[in-house]
Structures are given as C-alpha cells and as structure tokens.
C-alpha cells in the first residue's frame, strides 16, 4: 500500500511540474508577442516620421530652387540638419528591425521551433539555367519543411554570403517563393565566390 501511494505521489508531483512549465512558457510567449507588437508599432511611427521628413526636404528643395527674392527660403544648413535627422531616424528604424528579428528568433526558440541554418552542399555549382558558357558561383540548398526564401537568404547572409531573395528567385527560374517544396534543391548565388 505504501508503494502505491508513493508512486501516486510521484505521478501527481510530475503532472503539477509539467503544468507549471506549460503556463510559464505561455506567459513568456505572450510577453514576447507584446514586445514584438510594441517594436512593430515603434517602427511604423518611424516610417511615418521618415515620410514627413522626406516631404519637408522636398518642400525645402523647392524653396531653394525659387528665386532669391523669397525671404522664407531654407538655408543649406537647414537642409543638412534635416538630412541628418532623416539619417538618424533611418538608423533607429534599422535597429528596430534587428530587435524585431531577435524577438522572433527568441519566440521561435521558446515555442519549440527552430531556425535552420542552410547546409552548404557545393561551393562551385552552376546555376540551374546558366548563360551559355558562363558558370555562376554559389551553393545548392535543399528546402526543408517550414523554410521561407527570406529565412534562407538571412541564414546565408549570417554565414557571410551576400544574397537577397530577389537574387535567389532570379537564379531559380520557375521557383514559386510562396510555395516552397520540401526536398527540392535550389541554387543560392554568391557574387563574392571566386
């Protein structure tokens, strides 16, 4: 009888611990989702501010091009200050984008998902449809379930390969970026490869 009650106690304790971990994981996911939403809203505000500043720059350029008789023209210094503000806001926007990507990676890790680094199969593979007599440098990549072109391109950029989704699409005629097929091999071009 003691053995049975001992095993029942262990079973109950294990179930309580598992339930507590699930609740903590859900709470963490909720918190990260909120932070991502805040970052997205901040980015949207920055985009609006950039648009306003670009409009102001355009108006100031128009004023500078008007005859010198107009007293309400902007000086070159005003334009420089405005351009600096635009650059500052753009840097903040890029930092926000990086924070969003990091938060998404954390969210993927917390949810049990994983962000897969692409496997490099060949360093000197020709494109699927190369130009006559021209061999393009790059890598073959086998698509995995859940992959997206942007995630594949980012993973290669993280490995030092400068490639964009547009370049991947161009190197793989007939590839539908919205419907990647697991197991299919695609070509990742690398302009830096020698």
Q: Evaluate the radius of gyration.
A: 27 Å
Biggest sheet descriptor: 2 strands, antiparallel
Low-pLDDT residue intervals, each spanning 5 or more residues:
113-133
Order of helices and strands: HHEHHE
User: What number of structural domains do the residues give?
Assistant: 2
First-residue to last-residue Cα separation: 75 Å
Alpha plus pi helix count: 4
Strand content: 5-15%
Output mean pLDDT: 78
Biggest sheet: strand arrangement: 1-2
**Roughly what percent helix?**
55-70%
Please state the overall shape, judged from the principal axes of the Cα atoms. flat
Number of strands: 2
Class per helix and strand makeup: mainly alpha
Structure commentary:
There is one protein chain. The protein is mainly α. Helices cover 60% and strands 5% of the residues. The protein has helices at residues 2-65, 76-110, 149-158, 165-171; strands at 138-142, 185-189. Strands 1-2 form a two-stranded antiparallel ribbon.
Q: Keywords, please?
A:
mainly alpha, flat, 194 residues, two-stranded antiparallel ribbon, 4 helices, 2 domains, 2 strands, 60% helix, Membrane-bound Lytic Murein Transglycosylase D, Chain A
